[in-house]
Design brief:
Blueprint: H1 12-24, H2 30-36, H3 40-49, E1 64-67, E2 70-73, H4 80-86, E3 98-105, H5 111-117, H6 124-132, E4 137-144, E5 148-155, H7 158-173, H8 177-183, E6 185-188, H9 189-201, H10 212-224, H11 232-251, H12 261-272, E7 283-286, H13 290-301, E8 306-311, H14 315-323, E9 328-333, H15 337-342, E10 346-349, H16 360-364, E11 374-378, E12 395-399, H17 404-407, H18 411-467, H19 473-499
Parallel strand pairs: 7-8, 7-10, 8-9, 10-11, 11-12
Antiparallel strand pairs: 1-2, 3-5, 3-6, 4-5
Helix pairs in contact: 9-11, 9-18, 10-11, 11-18, 12-13, 18-19
This protein binds NADP nicotinamide-adenine-dinucleotide phosphate.
NADP nicotinamide-adenine-dinucleotide phosphate binds at residues 146, 212, 261, 287-292, 311-313, 316, 334, 350-353, 379-381.
């Protein structure tokens, strides 16, 4: 008789779990065993709402035992929450955790708030540790750039995870939760995946397709390596985001002619300067890191051949001088910063200083620029120039949010380029989901195979011993093959079901 390989009855693994559970507790009654077989969702709800309110909401026979209408909560060293956290990753024994992003970006949040939320790279491992100590957070990553502060987590409960992370952000930044809630965006699972892929591709940047964001995403992975809490889902997500960022830049036009925050800063300064003074304006760049160097290069590209660069240390400036031999770059230490500012028409600041470099008092005392206010363009987050400086008639201050003015142009081009990239992002999101799914199904597949194999071998032994010793090798092999064939046919349907990544509509 032909045996159909499709599996139509109750889920085989559910039956197996019932079987396993019953064998672990001799005190579980048949009704309790039935409850044990409830889908994971029910069990999870029990943990969240508090065990003990309803005698039927049994979690496992180890946790709760019903005896003469009395509910006895078994003393267990591991809390229900801990059990939920440490239970094996298995899609039929545990509800899948969610990937959640809690973010505040340049699109939703002003720089005044973003700078309070910013976490320097050196602090990311500590932040990951603190986030993973929250009750409902399993894994975490921090993406803190001048454009965004985004926390990526794997949360046991979306609602509680978001609440805990928001409270943590409030504690670290000093911004009240209510204010954070007004500006934050929340994305879950597929939407969160798609978001980080778009971010990495430069689609969510102020300057479409800019390359720095991909470097920053890479930095998250580099710093996260070996940090407990930068777990396999989150690290997998960020590594996949790097692949997407590279693919989008090589397979589409997005990076063609792409500028950076630094070049936008230079554009903005030139926009604000009277055209007649473009060639003669005295330029001062404070900070010679990645951004400072780009500012210098864009100034050079715009025809500037002479400038002063102030930096904490001289090494980086020397390297830039070496690279840009035809340009007259004068190095000055930070101690001479105010004097240099007094001799400049335009001051760019791009340092990683946590404290202000220019206050209103500093700028008030600077000799004024003849004919025009002095321009300060600050692309640092946290900002290097106090917002109060803009109250002075002698100064105009622009920060990273003001760059929107120069990048808003070319909107149609942005939309077209973004559409090209979206097809790649959709394809990669699907692949990532399939990978994540496989993380959870592999243990189930292994367990199911091992369980079936144990039964097959036991039944085969029984059968062969009944047949006696005088059977031929050929008959022995035929019986063995028969047992394997039956098991494989029976498992085929459930295995296919477990392996599917949801892309097959028949499943
Ligand atoms: N990377 C980006 O894509 C990007 C984009 C837009 C804005 N920004 C912002 O631009 C700023 C600089 O970023 P970056 O990527 O250029 O960083 P970076 O490559 O790490 O360079 C940091 C710069 O800041 C200086 N610095 C560090 N601590 C300082 C302190 N306490 N006082 C004075 N100077 C200090 C460093 O001087 P030394 O050379 O002496 O170490 C160096 O010049 C940051 O605020 C960042 O948020 C970055």
């Amino acid at each position: 008789m032909a045996v159909s390989s499709s599996f139509a009855g109750p889920k085989l693994e559910t039956l197996l779990l019932c079987n396993n559970s019953s064998s672990t507790s001799s005190r579980a009654s048949p009704s309790q065993i039935r409850i044990l077989c409830k889908p994971a969702r029910t069990r999870r709800t029990v943990f969240q709402r508090g065990v003990g309110l309803n005698p039927r909401c049994e979690v496992t026979s180890d946790v709760l035992v019903q005896d003469n209408n009395k509910i006895e909560l078994r003393a267990s060293s591991v809390s229900a929450l801990e059990q939920l956290k440490t239970s094996a990753a298995d899609r039929y024994t545990k509800e899948r955790s969610s990937i959640v992003v809690i973010g505040l970006s340049i699109h939703t949040t002003p720089v005044e708030m973003r700078e309070k939320l910013a976490i320097p790279e050196a602090e990311w491992p500590r932040a990951i540790g603190e986030l993973c100590n929250l009750n409902h957070i399993e894994e975490a990553a921090v993406l803190s750039t001048c454009n965004r502060m985004e926390i990526y987590v794997v949360a046991l409960s979306q609602h509680r995870g978001v609440k805990e992370v928001t409270e943590w952000m409030s504690k670290t930044s000093g911004i009240p939760v209510s204010e954070l809630c007004q500006h934050r965006f929340l994305l879950y699972n597929n939407d969160a995946t798609q978001h980080i892929f778009e971010v990495s591709a430069g689609l969510d940047s102020l300057v479409l397709g800019e390359g720095q964001i991909l470097a920053q995403v890479k930095q998250v992975v580099k710093i996260g390596q070996g940090v407990v809490g930068f777990g396999r889902n989150i690290s997998g997500l960020f590594k996949h985001a790097i692949t997407v960022g590279k693919r989008v830049r090589t397979e589409t036009n997005i990076a063609a002619g792409a500028v950076s925050v630094s070049s936008a800063a230079v554009e903005l300064a030139l926009l604000k300067l009277p055209e007649s003074s473009h060639a003669s304006a005295r330029m001062l760049v404070i900070g010679a890191g990645k951004m400072g160097k780009l500012v210098i290069k864009h100034l050079v590209a715009k025809g500037c051949t002479k400038m002063v660069v102030v930096n904490r240390s001289e090494e980086r400036v020397s390297a830039i001088q070496e690279e840009l031999k035809g340009v007259e770059i004068t190095y000055k230490p930070l101690t001479e910063m105010l004097t240099c500012a007094g001799e400049a028409d335009v001051v760019f600041t791009s340092t990683a200083s946590e404290t202000l470099l220019f206050t209103k008092e500093h700028v008030k005392d600077l000799p004024p620029v003849v004919g025009n206010p002095r321009l300060f363009v600050d692309i640092s987050v946290p900002r290097n120039i106090s917002a109060c400086v803009s109250e002075l008639d002698t100064a105009r201050v622009y920060n990273v949010d003001d760059l929107k003015e120069v990048v808003a142009a070319n909107k149609e081009d942005r939309v077209r380029k973004a559409m090209e990239a979206q097809a790649i992002i959709a394809e990669e999101s699907k692949q990532f989901e399939a990978w994540r799914d496989s993380l959870e199904t592999v243990p189930t597949i292994k367990k199911l195979r091992a369980y079936a194999e144990r039964i097959r071998v036991a039944e085969l032994d029984k059968c062969l011993s009944k047949m006696g010793d005088d059977i031929t090798k050929k008959t022995r092999k035929a019986v063995d093959d028969l047992s394997r064939g039956i098991v494989n046919k029976l498992l085929h349907g459930p295995m296919q079901h477990l392996r599917c990544d949801g892309s097959d509509s028949r499943t």
